[in-house]
Amino acid sequence: STDGFSWYLITANAPFTVRTEHVLVVQDGGSRMFLYGGHGLNANNGSSVNSLNDAWAMDTSNTWNNRATYR
Fold it and tell me: Beta-carbon neighbour count of residue 37 at 10 Å?
């Protein structure tokens, strides 16, 4: 998004798990995004199942890359 309101789908199947309570940072007018942590979700009922201690980044290549996994 260049305006913070209008978004479009880039990746239908991201390489990271579905999550909630994460942090997403958008920089450089939407050309870079960073995803941090959160909680994984149970696919059957949507409940939180575990803490995710990882960091992912996407730049103009539109590909998500794992930057770190913390234990």
Answer: 15
pLDDT at 71 over 80: no
Q: Assign residue 65 a region: left if phi > 0, alpha if psi is -120 to 50, beta otherwise?
A: beta
Asked if 41 and 47 touch (Cβ cutoff 8 Å), the reply is yes
Instruction: Using pLDDT thresholds of 50, 70 and 90, give the confidence band for residue 11.
Output: confident
Q: Is 1 a residue whose pLDDT tops 80?
A: no
Handedness of CA 43, 49, 54, 55 (dihedral sign): positive
CA distance 67 to 46: 26
